[in-house]
Amino acid sequence: MTSNNINRLKSLTTISLVLIVLISFAYRSLRADKGIVGKRLPEKKEMLVKDAPINGSEINVPLRDSIVSFGMDLVGTPYVEAGCSRDGFDCSGFVYFVFQHFKIQVPRSSSQFDNFGKEIAIESVKKGDVLLFLSPTRNVIGHLGIVSNPKGMESDFIHATSGRDMKVIISSLKQRGYTRRFVKAIRVL
User: Fold this and answer.
1) Residues recognised as catalytic
2) What is the residue extent of each domain of the chain?
3) In contact, 161 and 89? CB cutoff 8 Å
4) Residue ranges in the chain whose pLDDT is less than 70
5) Which of 74, 60, 54, 51 is nearest to 145 (CA)?
6) Phi-psi region of 86 (alpha: psi -120 to 50; beta: other; left: phi over 0)
7) Can you identify the CATH homologous superfamily of domain 47-187?
8) Is the CB of residue 156 less than 8 Å from the CB of residue 147?
């Protein structure tokens, strides 16, 4: 190796070390601005608040918020019989679409929710739980929605209605029509 090559190698090494020091300094400054100097940065999953264990596994609370937020973004989407896309939803198509977005498997048909998930007391509902209602014309599960604001029998929920509004809306369980037809709340997470 010639002395010219050795000098180039030394220069590259020096430049590399200077870059490493600068990057390290910038990183530490950034961490100091955020008040986390000397702290180990937690992995993303550690930054999530844990919910109560269900069947031995923990659910991340932010997942519930994300489900509700995604559902809220769909408010105003038209009601379409058998619809399951941003072009339009029926009630079970809406719930299916929202949960599928988070890779959570749920039934596609409202009647299949009758024996799905874990039944919970209405006083224990949380965001992302599902409310089941009787059909307005038959004695079977015929409507469902996702809890967006848990308050027991006054909980708000997002759903696709075939009623007067004919779109995805937010309703309250305290409304007489929904109170009368309410069957149960289930946890699918």
Assistant:
1) 91, 143, 159
2) 3-41, 47-187
3) no
4) 1-61
5) 74
6) alpha
7) endopeptidase domain like (from Nostoc punctiforme) (3.90.1720.10)
8) yes
